[in-house]
Amino acid sequence: MDVLTATLAWLLDPIHWSGPDGIPTRIAEHLAISIVSLAAAGLVALPVGAIIGHTGRGGTLAVNLANLGRAVPSYAVLVIVLPPALQLAPTLGYEPSLGLSEIPTFTAMFLLAIPPILVNTYGGLREVDRDLVEAARGMGMRERQILFRLEAPLAMPVIVGGIRTSAVQVVATATLGAVVAYGGLGRYIVDGIARNENDRLFAGVVLVAGLALAAEGLLALVQRLLSPRGLPSAGEHAFRNLAEVPAPPAFLP
Amino acid sequence: MRSRRMLALGASLLVLLSACGTGGGSKPTIKIGSDGFYESQLVAEMYAQVLEKAGYTVERSLALGARKVTSPALEGGQIDLKPEYIGSGLGYYDASKPSGDADANAAALQEILSGKGGGITVLDYSPGEDTNAFVVRPDTAAKFSLTTMSDLAAVQDELTWGLPPECETNPLCAGALTDTYGIDFPPANLEALAACDAPIAEALQNGAVDVAELCSTQPAIAQFGFVVLEDDKQTQPAENLAPIVRNDFLAKLSSSDKTAFEKLLNDVSAKLTTEVLTELGVEVAVNQKDVADVARDFLTEQGLL
Q: Considering the entire predicted model, what is its pTM?
């Protein structure tokens, strides 16, 4: 049986659709860590990006720092965070298994998700026509109002584009969590390699790719819906993405 | 004309005499290789140093890679000598052969290697071995009075197990635990972590798992004072270390030199206990000391240099 047929057979086998190692459980785990990491990254990167984008101050520094962060491989973050996360468990009173799996995976995904959101938020706001901003200021709008009523809506497609890039990267890379005993779809990939079971391995690959594409599609839709109507460049904006970066590095166990 | 011929004959006789005579003359060059990780490299370096002391010229090709690389290199004569694990080395040729019995593994490996690359000899294996080991923290060992793997079955549900992702399908892991030791697989509390790796050792040290599959000479065992549970029913393959050497190299030696050569390497093997390998592993892999320095210090201390 060739790999494709074997993978398809594996995916269609009902035994793989239930229980703690079943596909629904693994997808739920995968989405949980991805959504939490992405939300946390948004909570940090959106305000920071908005402030530096609006004021124009510290932009170069922040963008360079964010790009520096891109150079640190997620696997390295995982391995670096693991020992302190385990050692702090008794002091901070959390379960050691959190320090083993969830905290390192979360940290790696959190750091991975920040740069595209930050860079796009900053860039999106900076791209807003300065004449419009000056006009708003001349009309007596406060800085807050300029940010929320003028700049943010106009920059929204670009900002969502950053979130979209982050989401795809995080969903694809959260597979790494399986190396430190986290669940998620990476379990199939890591277990498939360890057991030399290609059907399991490729089923994991197909599921991760499918989930990443679903995230991409969903956020592309959001991006389109949030594009201000009548904006001349709306159509162009919808698919423009300042933080478009090369695909995340191939999975390295 | 005649005198020149006589001269040539005399010269070649002299060469022959010096080659096989006293043993004080020049010794052949030996090419030593090793697998790609520190322990294999360290032991190969020990072989190299004792042989250099005895007057051999050594060409080192250490850390060549996995057995897929080193075994063909030895068979093809790119290297003459390497340290080999008698279980995995045997498993490379016949996965069904390795057992928990070191003598049987060494004998079976010798039988196979006799027919490879014009003949390869397995010298004496070390008392120490680098095999799969099920390991606990000292506090767990004391609490449940664990010394052997047979002690685990009764308390299996009270422990969190750190087992590799392939355990389920590996007869040496789930197979041995279930069939031989009566432990349910999967255990009630399981974390899937690669064996012999840093994260699993960290997880054990910090209580995220209570029993973990490590390698018996893994530096973390000495570093953190873990307790290795005795594999009392011999489920894991015997992985003692033995020098394996090409017969065509041995054939270059006079019989007295050959005996001395084998004794040099066998003396090194005799000193390599599991504890020694673990402690030297800490020096190399944790303290990042130079392999050659660690080998030299150890051999000097043992009176082999």
A: 0.81
